[in-house]
């Protein structure tokens, strides 16, 4: 197996194109920044009568916000001038002229058709612009199959002690427990939210082994009544952009499966997309010295934390480990 930890470190600090703030663009209001830190996308609409405007896209739906001149308040909704003309529409048209079809990346359709209001004029929906030459970039995981063994060592397997009455009485958390808390606090989306047992998986959209895992995931999670928490990461600039589009989409699981099945239009990689949340997820992998994707983490019935490096060789064995051990 090719060791790629160094590649992770290099990729983490590459200057990914992440919705760069221009010199004339004000800082995002803290209220909206909280959403973008979790994977939403925000685009500056411009200033009208002293009010700065933004369109925020989360779960594939646009929302519109305006901040007063003093930056002491923010309101959500559409903006009209004194004559009743919708200024938001004009600002969105300007945004489309600046960014082109990149603004459709998280919606996969003309957002003017959504019930949250328009995001552009009546142009036909289109996929985001993408540098097709960059599709030849080789993902760090593509040329070698990761090992599939479950890691049993002390750092990745721990028995949960439920006898402690209070946190003050509890023993210091093990490295595995601290890692598991990090996973819960990372940026992820869920496949099969009706499941009753969580399985976390670091997934790079352009990793062929991740794609195999995602194609298997539907039957795997339903058979085991699992919730698959997908933590998107990117080992190169293009995959980081695709991963960012996933986090801001309304149907990320469906789009990831479509992309894994060969629909390259399912996940565009627009240059304007913000990849900060993806970089945070990738940093979490580096912190825990996870050096391949997919990287799968779950708890067993008795509370032990397990790690699988690479795609599982035997899904039934994983389910038995979750439900019986």
Secondary structure: elements and pairs:
Blueprint lengths: L4 H8 L17 H7 L4 E8 L2 E8 L2 E7 L6 E3 L10 H13 L50 E2 L23 H10 L4 E3 L5 E7 L4 H16 L2 E7 L4 H12 L3 H9 L15 H12 L7 E5 L5 E5 L5 H10 L1
Parallel strand pairs: 7-8
Antiparallel strand pairs: 1-2, 2-3, 3-4, 5-10, 6-8, 7-9, 9-10
Helix pairs in contact: 1-8, 5-7, 6-7, 6-8
Structural features, described:
This protein has helices at 5-12, 30-36, 87-99, 175-184, 208-223, 237-248, 252-260, 276-287, 315-324, and strands at 41-48, 51-58, 61-67, 74-76, 150-151, 189-191, 197-203, 226-232, 295-299, 305-309. It has 325 residues and is of the alpha+beta class. The protein has two domains: 40-129, no CATH class; 150-324, Glutaredoxin (3-Layer(aba) Sandwich). It has a six-stranded mixed beta sheet with strand order 5-10-9-7-8-6, with helices on both faces. The chain has a four-stranded antiparallel beta sheet with strand order 1-2-3-4, sandwiched between helices. β2 and β3 form a beta hairpin. α1 (5-12) packs antiparallel against α8. The chain is elongated, with a radius of gyration of 21 Å. It starts with a helix and ends with a helix. Residues 1-20 and 110-170 have low confidence and may be disordered.
Give a quick set of tags describing it.
325 residues, alpha+beta, Glutaredoxin, 2 domains, 9 helices, elongated
Task: Give a quick summary of the entry.
By secondary structure, the protein is α+β, with helices and mostly antiparallel strands. It has helices spanning 5-12, 30-36, 87-99, 175-184, 208-223, 237-248, 252-260, 276-287, 315-324, and strands spanning 41-48, 51-58, 61-67, 74-76, 150-151, 189-191, 197-203, 226-232, 295-299, 305-309.
